[in-house]
Amino acid sequence: MGSHPTNPAVGVAQPSHRVARDSLDALVEPEASEPEAPPVVAVVVTCDPGPWFEESLAALAAQDYPNLSVLIVDASAHEDPTGRIADILPGAFVRRLSRNPGFGTAANEALKLVEGASHLLFCHDDVAPDPAAVSLMVHEAYRSNAGVVTPKLVIWDAPEHLLAVGMGADKTGATASRVERGELDQEQHDAVRDVFVAPGAFMLVRADLFNAIDGFDPEITMLGEDLDLSWRAQVAGARVVVAPAARVRHLEATNSGRRSPTTVPAGPRGPLHEATEALERRHQLRCVLKNYNRWHRFRVLSQLLVLNVAEVVVAVATRRWPTAGAVIGAWRWNLSRTASPRKARRQVRTYRLLSDHDVRELQIKGLVRLNALFQPARRVTHLHAGGRGSPRRSGADRVAVGVVIVVALVYLFGTRDLLSGQLPRVGQLTQFPGASTFIRAFANTWRSTGLGGAAPAPTAFGLLGVAGFVLFGGTHLLRWALVVGAVPVGLYGVYRLGARMGSARTGWVAMVAYGAAPLAYNAFAEARWDVLVAYGAVPWVLAGTIRLAAADREGRLGLFDVLASGLVLAVAGALVPAVAVAVGVSAVGLAAGSLLVGRPGLAWRTLCLGLGCVVVAIALNMPWALDLMRPGSHWSGVVGIGADPAHADGFGGLLRFATGSLGHGVVGWALLVAATLPLVVGRGWRFEWAARLWTLAIFSWAFAWAGGRGWLGPAFPPGVFLVPAALAVALSIALGARAFEIDLRGYRFGWRQVAAAAAATALAVAVLPVLADSVGGRWNTPSAGFDQVLAPMVAPRGSAPERILWIGDPRILPLRGWELGPGRAYAVSLNGFPDARDQWPQADPGAAGVLAADLGQAESGLTAQLGHLLARFDVAWIVVPNRLSPDQSRAQASIYSQDPSLLPTLLSQSDLSLVPGDPSVIMLRNVAFHAEARSALGHPQAVVGYGYATLGYRGSPARYGEVAAELVAWLAVLYWLWRLRGFSPDPTRPPADEART
Amino acid sequence: MRAPRHVASASERTIKRWPIVVLLAVALAAGGLADRVGHRVSASSTVPAIRPVTSVVPPQATSSVWYCPGGTAGAGGVAAPVVILANSSARVVAGTVSEIPNKGKPVAAPVKVPARSQLRFTPPPLAQPSDYVAFSVLLDGGGVSVEEDFSGPLGTTTGACASRTAQNWYFASGSTVQGASDVIALFNPTPTDGVADLSFSTDQGPTTVGDFQGVLVPAGSLVVLNLGDHVQTRPQIATSVRARIGRLVVGELQTSNLPGQVGIAMTLGASALSRSWYFPNAVSAPGAHEEYHFFNPGADPAQVALFIGLDQGSSSPLSFTVPPDSELTVPTSGQARIPSGTEYHARVQVVNDVAIVAERTLAAPSGLVAMMGASFTARTWYLAQGITPPTYSGSVVVLNPGASPIEVSISVFRSGAVTGPGPVPRGPPVKVPAGGHLALALPAAASTPGAGLMVSSTSPFVVERDLVERHGKGLSAQIAMPAAWNVS
User: Fold this and answer.
1) Is B15–A688 a contact, with Cβ atoms under 8 angstroms apart?
2) What pLDDT score was predicted for residue B172?
3) Residue A552 has pLDDT above 60, yes or no
């Protein structure tokens, strides 16, 4: 074009500013004698263009299309580009705007300025089309009868690599590139085909179509205008096709940071990539709001809401604050403009030819963002949003993705029964009450556990209540997620930690090793929710500590890490207080490991951070945490009640994480064998870290073992305290993989290579029991709880309270209580079968201690009328389970303590009647209670005064003040995390000396 | 081996590998070693508590119960019972005695046992005629021992009551020959319905009777089974009662009207098997026929040794094998190793790891004795009644199974005789040689009506009381009731 402007109107145009002043009606009016090529006007929107602009203009000038005019709409804030344009495209028309209204609005100037054109070519100012690009696109527009045509976009500096060949979008407007960003162009995508989105950097639009659909949406300032235009074009019955033969280089000046950020039109503040994500999100949501009819809009919005809530939860958990902010901001922005989408919908209705159903057929099936989790290779991206990711995915990445998928599939396969069926009410997997019940319990100073008493409500009530409300009251779903979802969360956390070692392989090796530890599966089989929560949370809590230590000499005690780890620990500790102790022990172990390798400064900082986050967690759980720690509180309130020390797991069993049926035998040692590799072949930081992690593991094992033996106070269960050890072993195995990559290269073939092979084999062997266990489909989780055999009998028969006294091995009781002796606990539930509220008893049993004393009297032969004693406290039933669940076999139940004297004692009481029933549980009816209940006067006065009358107590102003203070504390921590988020070290950065290595 | 080609980068510090690795390995090994030691300590520290069914609960108890499997009901019965309650505590103990017949409704009567006193409770007449009765004694305190006194046309005897129920009960002796009867009383004092299975071992081997399987014993009821109805004319019957559901108290009432062997014997069953059984006093007297009955309900043969303890000289033990699920009767009368007319003590010890039941019977012209041995020792023993003239004469015999001599003191509490706070006063101590037995010289108060006894020592021992009806119409031999808190 440059050398032979065929359009006289263009040709006569001299000074650009004059064009801007005058009417442009004649811009593309062809003369009868000119060639028959349809007139095309290129609408270039500029905004303070950089040095690339001349090259871009030159590319336009070099187009071989015979009837191309150029209209430049300048939205520059600082510089008038007319002179630069005149130098290269003297025939171009320039329209200067007083402000930058965004790409769409600026491009809409064509609606006013251009008449008679057959097509409009909308361009950014940072694109450079090949000379034949426009010709090919116009040709394809006619050949395919397309309304919108897009070219093949390639990287500016590396045109052999692809950026986009058209794009797809799902029903929520999330776009997905059809090619991998940076993919080598080998003409593999050079087929003309329909696409849903024509990227806005360079798009040819039929002029009448553009007029008919009123151009770009003026509300969409940037990012998303192409999606919206393409969408509406298809609604209007037009095709959107890609013509890959037309190639256009794209600089992505804005997203690559080459353009001044001040040129970005008004929108979300913050770093550019954050603003990009926020703009994309809100404009995609706007498209959904305005381009669907009512039914599809409702359906898609419902799904999008659920997806967005999940995204926010995951984003907060993974500290991707911009993503959380973008999602929330998108809804806020659109909800503040309810009128605008309504008006836009009315406009869309005027030209709609295609139904939503037909539009859906053109979109990508499923949800792109969800699919991206399982198909990471197909990135969720927008053409504008590129620039940050790696242009290529390596083979190791693909292996990692493959392994992650396999691990996910194995877990899903092994959990399939739990996914499809209901979780039983067994062990710690008790039923969750409604969200409002949780909240009420949280706001109440009266605890109904035990015999009731005034005590601070556990923070868990508040958290679970809020989470339940977020799920629209779906506490069943919440319970299911907290049980089944803990393992994937933990595995992902370990994957992230492992990946920090600088290799994709270490990430998945760590994940596989962590997944091979039998802890989680034994926790399913033993219905131990505390271990599952710890399994999911500990990798995230310890990530800060480990990251600090990994920062090495550059490390500093970061407030962000303390707050972030403390926040995660506060949540986990609210659910399972023992996690806080486990993290404290881990911090000490890690510090000791640092001392061992001669880094006292790092040891001190590690210790400070570990204990610091424990302090934060305690502070966020006030005043409940205070109740756990005050004098007189039982240690078991924090760490739980363990098995009889005489039958506690041995040290060897703990080393193999064999807390249940899985992990025993020779195969159980395989993980440890694999974890020794970095100790014997690792060098430098690999060896240092292996020594630290092994020290951490030994501290955890020792603590768990000593606790199980009852040497640290009353015996407690080891499971939670083994989780850090499992994490350390998994990371050590990953270190072995890294040492294999780095250190073994420096050795000749010898025993080290053999050791590496042995470690790899050991890891493979360690996985086998898990694979075998997955066949059952529920990790041996019991299929039924005692509620099925007891609930009909113990259901309260009136308004008067009835309590159930539970006695037995603490591992099989469906609620938590207090220690009654070695390997024996007692607990009380009120009015029927216990629920989740009974999992957090007061640390001090208070009046419930009287029940223990009464039982002691009976066992000492000091009473033969235990029922009469218990009836004072409305104990109507005594339940002594001897198995975890009714469907457990006698052999499976043999691991649980059976007190040989308890049952004879109870059955010898003259007022306790054995209720025939399932052999898995012994149930005694308190004849004395029921006799009193039948009496005309009901319960004795003492009973009424003691428990029932006070059940009506519903909080106090002081408690509301406490709740408000707790809320403020949580919000303050979140606020500071938000403020400090920029100071967090880049989690993707490899260890300091790794780069050097 | 060649030196590795690896050259550490300048940024990597030099750390000595092997000291650290060795240190970590030592830490793990130390954990394993400590685990072994700790496990042994933990395992050895768990010893289940022993609590015999006849034990007396401490005085500070808030309540206590006694279950007496009973005797015959109504006048003219062969074993009309009287319940004897002896309160060794310093406070009045009140309660209720419920008389539970095997037919008809129970009758309850309040009782109040003064401090350190004895109460003889004669059951009131029943509203409906009944054959047998049992008693449930519910008290609002502890320190009370309870036993029964039986009398009838065939003579008198005493019987122990149980302070708790049990799931299994065993009897090693019994007979249904012509002129003898054997009745098993299944007493369920609990609020839970019970179902019992009975099995027998006779001289013809083990047997089960359909009618005695799944016997329903409703809550708070008495079911009496006459073995002679189904296990007929067997000179030796050992009985095993297992409560399939619930828990029971089971007694055996034996009567004999054979020439030269007339009498009654009421025996509370053994609630547990044991490898050791003690018989503090036995006699080899002319005209008396003494036998030891061993019942092995298990599946393995028991290698049993019966040690005879003579006051003078020694006797080699009798050794024999009790086949599985079998009863073995060993007569000692006429044994050359036991001089005639001497009193001795006996100890049964199972050599192998099989637990059995051992019972001693004595048939004499003056009466019948069937006494379970003691499978435990204690430092304090109670007897609800002493040697009560003018009905009885007899003795209280202690056996010291230990290896050291012990000093035993006997205390008597009798209505009005001892009052006031504090423990029951002890008499002067009597020394009992190691492995020996001794008939205690009772203070005069012990031989007066209404006296209860407490025999105590600093070391475990066993107490037996033997009674002879002064008119030659009754015999009784009974192991005393141990204090629950110091049984070993």
Assistant:
1) yes
2) 92
3) no
Q: Tell me the residues of chain B between 173 and 212 that have a Cβ less than 8 Å away from chain A.
A: 189-193
Question: For residue A253, what are its two tokens?
Answer: 């000046």
- Supply the pLDDT for residue B334: 76
Is the Cβ of B444 closer than 8 Å to some Cβ of chain A?
no
Given a contact cutoff of 8 angstroms between Cβ atoms, the answer to whether B391 and B286 are in contact is: no
Helix (H) or strand (E) holding B476: strand B475-479
- Is residue B244 within 8 angstroms of chain A, CB to CB? no
Burial of B421 (0-12, 13-18, 19+ CB in 10 A): exposed
- Could you tell me if A656 and A664 are in contact, meaning their C-beta atoms sit under 8 angstroms apart? yes
Q: Return the residue of B nearest to A900 by Cα.
A: B48
Give B424's contacts (C-beta < 8 A, 6+ positions apart): B88, B116, B411, B413, B418, B454
> From the CA of A865, how many Å to the nearest CA of chain B?
7
Q: What is the ipTM of this complex?
A: 0.79
User: Do the Cβ atoms of B4 and A748 come within 8 Å?
Assistant: yes
pLDDT digits 0-9 by tens, B132-184: 999 999 998 888 999 998 988 888 888 989 998 898 999 999 888 888 889 99
CA A462 to CA A464: how far, in whole Å?
6
Residue keyed to tokens 């400070």: A608
Cβ–Cβ < 8 Å for A535, A486: yes
Give the Cα separation of A532 and A550 in Å (integer). 27
B15 with A688: CB under 8 angstroms?
yes
Q: Which amino acid is at B194?
A: G
Structure confidence by residue, pLDDT tens digits, A618-668: 999 888 888 888 777 777 788 888 888 888 888 889 999 988 888 888 888
Q: Across residues A522-545, what is the average pLDDT?
A: 90
CB B73 within 8 A of CB B133: yes
Summarize pLDDT for A782-810 with one digit per residue, the tens: 888 888 777 767 666 666 778 899 998 88
> A6 pLDDT exceeds 70?
no
pLDDT above 90 (res A490): yes
CA distances from A230 to A198, A201, A241, A347, A968 (A): 6, 13, 10, 15, 46
Q: Do A907 and B245 touch (CB under 8 A)?
A: no
What pTM value is reported for the model?
0.69
Helix, strand, or coil here: A371?
helix
Which residue among B9, B35, B142 sits closest to A651, beta carbon to beta carbon? Answer: B35
Q: What is the DSSP letter of B392?
A: E
The percent of residues above 70 in pLDDT, for chain B, comes to 90
pLDDT digits (tens, 9 = 90+) for A815-859: 888 888 888 899 998 888 888 888 888 888 878 888 888 888 888
Question: Which residue of B21, B60, B61 is in closest CB contact with A679?
Answer: B21
Q: How far apart are CA A665 and CA A657, in angstroms?
A: 11
Both structure tokens of A896:
């649980």
> Of residues A570 and A889, which shows the higher confidence score?
A570
pLDDT of A254 reads 78
Interchain contact B19–A (C-beta under 8 A)? no
d(CA A767, CA A508): 13
> Using the beta-carbon criterion (under 8 Å), do A914 and B245 form an inter-chain contact?
yes
Q: Which residue of A684, A698, A911 is in closest CB contact with B191? A: A911
Task: List the alpha helices (DSSP H) in A146-266.
Answer: 207-212, 225-235
